[in-house]
Design brief:
The chain is an alpha/beta fold. It has helices at residues 13-23, 40-50, 89-93, 96-100, and strands spanning 2-7, 29-33, 66-70, 76-81, 105-109, 123-129, 135-140.
C-alpha cells in the first residue's frame, strides 16, 4: 500500500513526524531517499523529537557519518549520513551491520551511496519537494 504525508511548512513537522511513526510502527531501519535540500535532516530531527530525544541534539552527521541519540525510553537511535561515503565498504568499516542488527532505530540519509548493503527490511522513504515548496513524504509497505 502507498502512503503519503504532506508537510506544508515547518509548523506541520511535528504532527507529520507523529503520523509517520504511527503509520510505520515497527519499522526500525528507515532510509530516506531525497535530493539535497529536501529536508531529510529536518524531518529526522522531528522524528527524534517525537521519540523523546531531548534538546537540539539532532544534526546532520555528514562528517561523523553516524550520530547516536537517546530516545525518551532510553534507547539508542542511530542517525547516518552517507553523503560523503566514497564506496560501500566504508560503511562496513564503521560497523554498519552492528548498528542495523542492534534493534535500535537507524535513520539513514543518502542510502543510495551504500549500494546493496541496505537490508531488505529497511523502510525506503522518499521526500519530494513540491512546486509550492511543501514536502511530501512517501513510502510503500
Amino acid at each position: 500500500m502507498k502512503h503519503e504525508i504532506t508537510i506544508r511548512g515547518l509548523e506541520d513537522l511535528d504532527n507529520a513526524a507523529g503520523e509517520f511513526l504511527r503509520e510505520t510502527s515497527g519499522s526500525r531501519i528507515i532510509a530516506f531517499f531525497a535530493p539535497m535540500g529536501a529536508g531529510k535532516t529536518t524531518f529526522t530531527a522531528a522524528l527524534c523529537r517525537r521519540l523523546g530525544v531531548e534538546g537540539d541534539a539532532v544534526s546532520s552527521p555528514t562528517f561523523a557519518i553516524v550520530n547516536e541519540y537517546r530516545t525518551g525510553a532510553g534507547e539508542s537511535l542511530f542517525h547516518f549520513d552517507f553523503y560523503r561515503i566514497g564506496k560501500p565498504e566504508e560503511a562496513l568499516d564503521i560497523g554498519l551491520y552492528d548498528y542495523l542488527d542492534s534493534g535500535c532505530y537507524c535513520i539513514i540519509e543518502w542510502p543510495e551511496n551504500i549500494g546493496g548493503l541496505l537490508p531488505e527490511e529497511a523502510l525506503k522513504v522518499g521526500i519530494r519537494v513540491n512546486p509550492d515548496e511543501s514536502r511530501t513524504v512517501f513510502w510503500e509497505d
